[in-house]
Amino acid sequence: MGLPPQLASQPVLIDATRSIRQAAQQMAESGIGSLLVRRPEGGLGLVTDRDLAFAVLCDGHDPGTSVDICTGSRVTTVTEDHSPFDIARTLARRGVSRVPVLDRDGVLTGVVSSDDLAWYFAQELRRLAQAIRTGFEHESHPPAPAGPNLGRE
Fold first, then answer.
1. Average pLDDT in the 118-122 region?
2. Where does 31-113 have alpha helices with state H?
3. Three-class SS state of 16
4. CATH number of the domain bearing residue 25
5. Given 54, 89, 101, 106, which is the most exposed site by the fewest CB atoms within 10 A?
6. How many Cβ atoms from other residues are within 10 Å of residue 39's Cβ?
7. Which contacts (CB < 8 Å, 24+ apart) does range 124-127 have?
8. What's the angle, vertex CA 29, arms to CA 43 and CA 54, rounded to 5?
9. Does 137 or 89 have the greater pLDDT score?
């Protein structure tokens, strides 16, 4: 079972040369909490609203500083072949809350967050509860036996 297409959100990118302020503005305008950072050498970085706040407020970086200063050296990625369970394990193991999703050719196709997974698992549990409820209803109201009238006329 691979990644359901509706689970990954569209990736939003920013160039590494853009400023922390521009990254924050782009997040605010897009209503999101993270951006993928397109690095000049072709790699990806990931920056969150929390990263930006810490960079400015705790580390003392000027908001005009390049956003690349806020990204880690390596970004954990998953492929579309990963199941939601695989992705949840990856997030937990790596201590991250979101991962970029790549197709089989290594092309970026989306981003999955822990919130996306929580929504997905909640929907799956709702479907399971409905199936169980339907099963109980069938058990408590078994169909009438088929066959002859058994002497009742």
1. 94
2. 49-53, 84-94
3. coil
4. 3.10.580.10
5. 106
6. 15
7. none
8. 60
9. 89
